[in-house]
Amino acid sequence: MPAITVSNETQTQSQPQTHAFQYTSTESSTPTSIPLARTLSTSYHPERVHLNHKWDHGYNLSMEQFLRYMPKVELHVHLDGSMDPLFLWDYLKKKRSSSSVSGSSGNCSNVMECLPEEVTLPWNNQTLKVRSAVEACTTLEEFTTLITCRGERSLFAMLECFEIFVPIVRGNLVLLEQLAFDFCQRQFSQRVMYTEVRYSPHFLVKLAEKECEDEGKDGSGDGSDDSDNDINSNSNSDDRGTMKKHKGTGTGARDVIDAITRGLRRGEKEYGIKVNQILCCIAWRPDWAREVVELARDYKDNYPCAVVGVDIAAGEDHFDQEKLPHLYEPHYEAFQIAQEYDLNITIHAGEVGDSQFVRKAVNEYGARRIGHGYKIACEPDVMEEMRRKNIHFEVCPTSSNETGGWAYDGDGRDNSDNSGECGGKEWKKHPAIDMIRYGLNVGINSDDPAVFDTSLTWQYRIGVGKMGMSKDAIITCLQNSISSAFVEEDVKVWMRNRVDIFLEEHDECMNET
């Protein structure tokens, strides 16, 4: 196949084009142009597509255009895993010499002093130096390398990246709001008409003074910010965990949710897309679990950009009732309450843990969707149960490779997505293909696009060009995501209509052999 270069996707969006992805609700309107206060072309994964890569023979320019302009839905993407390295680097450069900065460790003389010297990683008790690692970066390239994870094939190596860059934004409500707005900008640039973005509000909270002192000792940190800018003034004010002050220093995770909600609402209005939120518990912080559930209930009807579900992220150790009851019991109890509150539940399971954790997530924790779930691909009995219960699997191809969720021998490279995509294995034997062939309800997602240096559009490219998925299979995955979204039926009808219009407009492309 001759080399065909498709221009940078993110650089072609100065004017939105008339495609079916555009949102036509009276709630907002599609803008006539995208404000370029900051260039839309981000530092992570520019959309340069060279079709002479080792794509499947069915991948061509027509397919590239189809995937690029197809209206999309994303149900599994982490906000903190989507934070643009260029944005963070610019912020660091501007604030290095600032006289006062509010950050994860309180008010500091400059941004570097807001970063912890080191943290203790809770999953292995090893010490990770943070401040010196960031200070050592003199260029954007060095900083991007520091906070991205490629080629490690380890979930915990990936999680280390978060321990490096999250302290930069932790507790900075203005910055979090802007990052949420920018997230909407990038989703719009990829034709993502509906997103459920997830994050741990506690992980993004400014550390209380005591926890700031202890962070390097035990890796903990749930503190709070001292701002009082709750957008949800009609929230129930009782004595539940959501309203308690953390160590007397502020209102905690609620401020983070409010700031992110403001940014998402601005993004919805500006770009004519729809975004809702999922709040994450963190596997190694059982003390946060109950409050996450209470917060989700409080923000359940806080539309637009409401909290539509809860999750448990950052590992699967909490499923181990026998060996780790201190992790299991608080999470299990919190998710019994979540079910009583009729909250939607999606849980990371079967990614790097036991396939039986998928069963636990569904049968004990009440999950209707599973983040990843690759380990069930060699367990026909588990797949049959999940097929019968119509459990949706949020599949993330690049993520599965980088975290080791997709197990295979060898680690050869072929640079299949321009950023070190691990090759030397057979993508057509990816567990997601077995899951699809078995008839499971599967959707495609990007997970942590900035950390993995990728995008949702790239995940579809890998699906077709590497995994051998047909257009029909791609559309089925898209329709699965629509059907499984934690949203009202009228919004699903709107999304299906947008897809139908797109397919009608591109019937010539669809009929190509």
From TrEMBL:
Gene Ontology biological process terms, A to Z: adenosine catabolic process; hypoxanthine salvage; inosine biosynthetic process; negative regulation of adenosine receptor signaling pathway; purine ribonucleoside salvage
Cofactor entry: Zn(2+)
Keywords: Hydrolase, Metal-binding, Purine salvage, Zinc
Domain of life: Eukaryota
Biased composition (Polar residues): 1-23
Pathway participation: Purine metabolism; purine nucleoside salvage
GO cellular component: cytosol; external side of plasma membrane
Family: Belongs to the metallo-dependent hydrolases superfamily. Adenosine and AMP deaminases family.
Protein name, per record: adenosine deaminase
